[in-house]
Amino acid sequence: MKITYTARKVNLRDNFKERVEKKLAKFKKLFSDEAQAFVVVTLEKNRQTVEITIRDNRMIYRAESTQPEMNDALDRVIDILTRQIRKNKTRLEKRIKTGGSLDDLIAELPAQEQALAEEDYQVVRKKQVLMKPISVDEAIFEMNMVNHDFFMFINAETDEVNVVYKREDGNYGVLEPAAD
Questions:
Q1: Cα separation of 19 and 15, whole Å?
Q2: pTM of the model
Q3: Is the pLDDT of residue 98 over 50?
Q4: Which domains does the chain have, with CATH numbers?
């Protein structure tokens, strides 16, 4: 697994990088050698945010945590990633070459979290959306009018389905389709 570090408003020490590599080592057996992990560390006032994104064979796992201490945020992110992998165990098993390693990782989870992770996804509502070509600005306006965190629309410039969403920092993002 290739690890890429990005530091924003902070200098990363070697011992933090070693700790990241040690923590991510337990995930290496679950992903191919081409897997990439992106670690972004941001310092804002007295808060430190650690974000880890793992990409491998069209799978993306992402977790983020903000804590007063960088190492605490890292521990929390690793816990979140472990739970995500646990929840998607059956999908992962189909893609993993060697079995058993996922069970070792799952065994590390507390019993309560294992029970939560065993739940199946349940679709409780389906909704059809009438879409017309509009601009990104109009889509953001529509999203704010209905007081949602996201809005699906046909982009008037590209004639493709896009999604605008509200980010935690108060800004907006756009999801556009792309082929691998």
A1: 6
A2: 0.59
A3: no
A4: 2-117 (3.30.160.100), 133-175 (3.30.505.50)
